[in-house]
Amino acid sequence: MRALLAGARRKQASLIAFTRQLVQVESPSDEKSAVDACVALAAARGKQLGGRVKTYRQTGFGNVLELRFGPRNQPRPPPNPSCSSAISTRSGLSARFRPCPAV
């Protein structure tokens, strides 16, 4: 636990700076250009962190961002409904989380 806290403290300044950027961009869901700016910011950060970025261009609403982390060829475990959740917003940002460890 101490190592986790120490790691978080080392990254605290950059996390606060990125959070500040996200807040300053502000992306009302009905303004495509504002949503696209927010998606671009998140894509740049994801790429900086080693993620693979894919942007799905949209015409009516904001673009959709897909970020993937980890090895490309790693076999995926079968879906476990109790361990995954998806977040989708009208703004075009979405994420899928698998908090349960692979068994």
Give keywords:
103 residues; flat; alpha+beta; two-stranded antiparallel sheet; single chain; two-stranded antiparallel ribbon
Structure commentary:
The protein is an alpha+beta fold and 103 residues long. It has one domain (2-72, 81-97). The protein has 2 helices and 4 strands, in the order H-H-E-E-E-E. It has helices spanning 2-25, 32-48, and strands at 52-56, 64-68, 85-88, 94-97. The strands form 2 sheets. Strands 1-2 form a two-stranded antiparallel ribbon. A two-stranded antiparallel ribbon has the order 3-4. The protein is flat and about 45 Å long. Mean pLDDT is 79; it is low at 83-93.
Q: Nutshell version of this structure?
A:
The protein has 103 residues and is α+β, with helices and mostly antiparallel strands. The protein has 2 helices and 4 strands.
Domain unit count: 1
Q: Which secondary-structure class do the elements indicate? A: alpha+beta
| Share of residues in strands | 15-25%
Overall average residue pLDDT: 79
Shape: flat
SSE blueprint and pairings:
Blueprint: H1 2-25, H2 32-48, E1 52-56, E2 64-68, E3 85-88, E4 94-97
Antiparallel strand pairs: 1-2, 3-4
